[in-house]
Amino acid sequence: MDALRDRDPAHIGAYTLLARLGAGGMGQVYLARSPGGRLVAIKVIRDEITDHPEALARFRREAETVRAVRSAYTANLIDASLQAPPYWLATEYVSGPTLSGAVGTHGPLPADSARRLFAALAEALASVHAHGVTHRDLKPQNVILSPQGPLLIDFGIARGAADTALTQTGLTPGTPGYTAPEVLTGHQVGAAADVFALGATLAYATTGRPPFGTGPTHAVSYRVVHEDVDVSGVEPGLAALIQECVAKDPGARPGPDAVIARCAVSSALAEDPFYGRLAADAVAVPRDLRAAVAAGLVPAGHGAPAAPAYRPTVGPGYVPTYVPTAVPAPRPRRSRRTPWLVAVSVAAVVVAGSVVALRMQDGESEGGGGGASASGSGAAWKPPAYIVGDRPNRDIWNSADGTCAQVGAVSAPEELQYSAVDADDPTAAEVRERARIRVRFKYAEMKKEQPEPYYVSVGVKPPRDNSPTTGVPYEGTTYVRAGYTSRPVDIYTHRKDGGYIELTYPDDFQEHSGTGKVYRPVPLAADPGDWTVVFYHVTGPAPTDHESIGCHGFQVGSS
């Protein structure tokens, strides 16, 4: 729990903020008090991601899911504002540590306590599934150990059985190490995937170790699909049940009722002495504003205006009134770019060959672009001035082996050649202030006839999601947007001399939102690690007409 900051509001809706509870990829979570004195946890979606349709739809779906699932194993929805920014939802505040935090502090659970927890979580899943919902992100961080028993939280990617609206975006739901193989390989999400996550969660609870090891996302996911779960040292009977829950074949996994029967518990989890010690670790929280000020969680005088009169927006019989609307066409905007002073470093591969430079200066480009006629159909279209990421991109480059894991990419019509090096010292092991990126089709110069235009935009993605307005990365997140992208250019324009399209990050890149907002690129020094470069084929005149055809990357050092 952290103190409120100057930029935090004093009130959200009718609720008085008392402290910060934490932050995630979607937004900030606050402890707050209702006018009648009830403590609630309020999740507020970050302003800078309200421009992303998928994020807003996910947040609204989370509110609807929490409202629908009324269970002893979930924190109930109290209130929400889903119509206009700021978007937020309030759930009842549950006192208790997360399973992840409890195991980190006290170590693995003994076998008897683990069986009781296993049975309780299986009963929680059965309750959630009875409402026609799959959680899809069960993991130790999303289990609160309350004195009465475990509660499931964070339904941000939960899904109703008939709800498939956001499945088609290419986003793989869940968390590496806890996401079932069929979800990773075929997006087959169902109740059996929750059982897999349950088994992986209990593997962590009984060993204190990640169930499929650590490392890059693609390495952990490979182990999930091809290797065994880590249950070394676990009591054999309990280990066998965990292994059945994480079977590669979803049809071979037991259902929650079978898990409960196999655990054969004879007393409630709340009566277990070891669990009682874990649940007792709940942090003391202030009950009102005066106590929060006295504890140093709210600066004196913070938010002088009183909270507005209480008008509940969600309650029994609530029916959502928002109607999804089409994303408005983005409007090109110029952004004043401030030079960033950076001192960092980056690994690189040098590809020889002549270079034709492309520069983006106030919406103009050299050597690539203009209107084109698709000779096959006779239809003329101009490429967009920029591309917009209307769906998640999970292409990711790994410096450990120099390879790229691509999700949903298509094949380019010819062999792509590309490189990413330090712009000022191409022989350097790490990029410093700027990255130079080159791309071309191999042997394009040998074509005798002019090929049809093939427009390419390059996207550069930092390791972590960040605030577009400040460039500050969010801890524990992964950047899954299209990236900071370049103007589309016809790759064949430079074919006569075999030249490469050359771009420099950050000079030639900007991020464009679906509502027309333009964000300057984050400096390399802001997020050391593996940066990913994605090559997009621009397939039509709309900013969203594009597909991933290639992937590369470079490494930025920490100093």
Topology, pairings included?
Elements: E1 11-12, E2 15-23, E3 27-33, E4 39-45, H1 53-68, E5 77-81, E6 88-92, H2 99-106, H3 111-130, E7 133-134, E8 143-146, E9 149-152, E10 159-160, H4 181-186, H5 191-207, H6 217-226, H7 236-245, H8 256-263, H9 273-279, H10 289-294, E11 355-357, E12 372-373, E13 380-381, E14 396-398, E15 403-405, E16 416-422, E17 435-441, E18 455-461, E19 484-485, E20 489-490, E21 500-505, E22 511-512, E23 518-519, E24 529-538, E25 546-556
Describe the structure.
- With 559 residues, the chain is α+β, with helices and mostly antiparallel strands.
- It folds into 3 domains: 134 residues, 2-Layer Sandwich (Phosphorylase Kinase, domain 1), CATH 3.30.200; 143 residues, Transferase(Phosphotransferase) domain 1 (Transferase(Phosphotransferase), domain 1, Orthogonal Bundle); 202 residues, no CATH class.
- It contains 10 helices and 25 strands.
- Helix 3 runs antiparallel to helix 5, helix 3 packs antiparallel against helix 8 and helix 5 runs antiparallel to helix 7.
- The longest helix is centred in the N-terminal third of the chain and has 20 residues.
- The relative contact order is 0.12.
- About 16% of the residues have low confidence.
